[in-house]
Amino acid sequence: MRRIARAAAAVSLALGVLTTVGSTAAHADTWHGCPDGYVCLYPGASWNNDTPSHVYYNYGTYNLSGMFGTYRIANNQTDGATMRTCTGYDGTGCEGYLPAQWSIDKDMTPINSITLQP
Predict the structure, then answer these.
(1) What span, in angstroms and rounded, lies between the C-alpha atoms of 36 and 78?
(2) The domain containing residue 89 runs over which residues?
(3) In this structure, are strands 54-56 and 60-63 parallel, antiparallel, or unpaired?
(4) Is position 83 within any domain?
(5) For 18, which DSSP code?
(6) Which of 67, 63, 62, 61 is nearest to 53 (CA)?
């Protein structure tokens, strides 16, 4: 019984560490204030008290303005949907894909748009 309790505690700790560093997260209805199915941006390299400053839901391109410095981007979309940051407006000059249920801290100064896609 003690061995099972230790194993459960180790798994719980490991999941907490993975969620903290943003490499993955257990899927839930909300994730740090980001609703299920959304991409959320948080000012600074933090979760901003679980309060996103920008939220996006529908697939497509979103032009951004007035966003400078580091933002945490959380992709809480479902069904494996991804998002991309782009240096140009209207989804041009796009960079890598952020998978669903992942987050990244990104300098948004050169970013002018994001895309959400299935």
Answers:
(1) 7
(2) 28-117
(3) unpaired
(4) yes
(5) H
(6) 67
Radius of gyration (C-alpha) of the chain in whole angstroms? 16
The number of folded domains in the chain is 1
pTM of the model: 0.75
Cα separation values, 88 from 5, 16, 47, 95, Å? 52, 36, 26, 11
The tokens 């907490």 sit on which residue?
Answer: 16
How far apart CA 101 and CA 87 sit, in angstroms, is 23
With a cut of 70, list the residues of the chain below it in pLDDT: 1-28
Residue 56 contacts residue 38 (beta carbons within 8 Å): yes
Q: How far apart are CA 45 and CA 22, in angstroms?
A: 11
